[in-house]
């Protein structure tokens, strides 16, 4: 029942004129899969209820009590702590970063140029002076 209402709203949204009308929620893959999933679950529940549980399914779902009366902790209301006497408007205004002094030492130094190292010319040698006896 709720899915049919959502489907009607999605089709109505897709047919409205104006900016953003390229979105068509009723044709989205999630919405199409959800419809078949709900239908299959309903059929399975009705089938199993018919040969296992033998209970009559009510036409309207009963209203459930949404407020749990066990297992929950009462929330503690949050209160901001009192301001310290040191935090005056003058103190807060002193933190204005636009009034800070210009400091040129904070600029990063340019990187020094790395000189290339000359690699030694390594050639394979047969006569190394090593002997295996």
From TrEMBL:
Residues 97-126 have a biased composition (Basic and acidic residues). Transmembrane segments: none annotated. Residues 96-133 are annotated as: Disordered. This is BROX protein. It comes from Cisticola juncidis.
